Amino acid sequence: MAGVAAVGLTVAALAVAVPESSRAAPPPLPLASLFGGPFTLTDHNGQQRTDKDYRGKFMLIYFGYTYCPTICPTNLQHMAQALKKLGPKAKSVQPLFITIDPRRDTPKLLKEYMTHFGKNFVALTGTDDQLRAATKSFRVHRRKVIADKTAPEDYLVDHSSITFLMGPDGKFRTLFPHDTTGDVMAKRMTKYLAQN
Questions:
Q1: For residue 70, with 0-12 CB atoms within 10 Å meaning exposed, 13-18 middle and 19 or more buried, which class applies?
Q2: 32, 98, 150, 174 — which has fewest CB within 10 A?
Q3: Dist CA 100 CA 62 (whole Å)
């Protein structure tokens, strides 16, 4: 018990000796510096695209893959609903779907997949290196999961499920967690659209 008391006194003494300013936690980094960056990818029509192609527009970005059973289509549907809710203001928003499974998600498959969500949706793919750079910039996690070793081609991809809103300058504005409804997305996006 005496040892515990001594440790307590030592900790208390150290706390007094260290100035309050030194003990305070450092201010958090602005989110704008944590998410986003330049990318060079290929759209579902086979045309090379970079982030600069979308300057002047907001980018609503989701990383996923076409073989995703429920999570990806759910979030893409919410994106579509949000854009519909925005009405004419949606013209200033470019919805982008960036695949994390380039091996299976060919441009042809991506083009067909996008028809389920809206004519303005653009799907992007690329080389492993290009997609690795894009996911790293947005801090998106992805990991192949093979449930049946006898069928290695029938795999899932565990991944972050976040929708990003980037500004007309290409900088981060906000993010939407998985299953954020279209109504909520549209309401929050309206505030950012009004600032430009």
A1: exposed
A2: 150
A3: 10
pLDDT of residue 147: 64
> What's the distance, CA 167 to chain centroid?
14
User: Does residue 4 sit within a domain?
Assistant: no
- Domain with 120, as residue range(s), is 37-194
Is the pLDDT assigned to residue 19 strictly greater than 50?
A: no
- Domains of the chain: total: 1
What does the pLDDT look like over 63-107, one tens digit per residue? 999 998 899 999 999 999 999 999 999 999 999 999 999 999 999
Mind giving me the DSSP string for 176-192? E-TT--HHHHHHHHHHH
CATH number of the domain at 167, please: 3.40.30.10
Residue 14 inside a domain? The answer is no
Tell me the pLDDT of the chain averaged across its residues.
83
Question: Residue 147 — φ and ψ, nearest 5°?
Answer: -80, -35
